Amino acid sequence: MLTPRERLVLTFEDMHPAGGTKEEAIRQTFGFSPTRYYQIVERLTGQQDAEAEFPMLVHQLRRQALDKAAARRARAA
After folding, report:
1. Contact yes or no for 2/50 (Cβ under 8 A)
2. In this structure, are residues 15 and 26 in contact, taking their beta carbons and an 8 Å threshold?
3. How far apart are CA 48 and CA 32, in angstroms?
4. Helix 34-44 and helix 4-15: axis angle, to 10°?
5. How far apart are alpha carbons 29 and 66 in whole angstroms?
6. H/E segment holding residue 58
7. CB neighbours of 22 closer than 8 A, spacing ≥ 6?
8. Do the Cβ atoms of 53 and 10 come closer than 8 Å?
9. Is 22 within 8 Å of 12 (Cβ atoms)?
10. 22 exposure class (CB count in 10 Å sphere: 0-12, 13-18, 19+)
11. What secondary structure letter does DSSP report for 54?
12. Quick one: CA dihedral 68, 70, 71, 75, positive or negative?
């Protein structure tokens, strides 16, 4: 079961597109760095509870992670 903070993080991620103003909103909303925020988001994408409550978002985030990993592998090859 997701904690209220985890639910808030996923709701925030679903509502805020990437960009410079997002980083400041992360600091103001959660009180921690964008790096910490994205670590939490990444961890949540692996949880079944997160997928059950935010299926489209979690699938989108997983797809983005796979695309980034493929791009890294292509650059390394």
Report:
1. yes
2. no
3. 25
4. 100
5. 28
6. helix 55-76
7. 16, 34
8. yes
9. no
10. middle
11. S
12. positive
Helix axes 4-15, 55-76, angle to 10 degrees: 70
Rounded Cα–Cα distance for residues 55 and 63 (Å):
12
Distance, in Å, from the CA atom of 10 to the CA atom of 39, rounded to the nearest integer, reads: 12
CA–CA dist 46, 55 (Å, integer): 12
Question: Using N-to-C axis directions, what is the helix angle for 34-44 and 20-30, rounded to 10°?
Answer: 80
pLDDT tens for 12-59 read 999 987 777 899 999 999 999 999 999 999 999 999 999 999 999 999
pLDDT at 2: 97
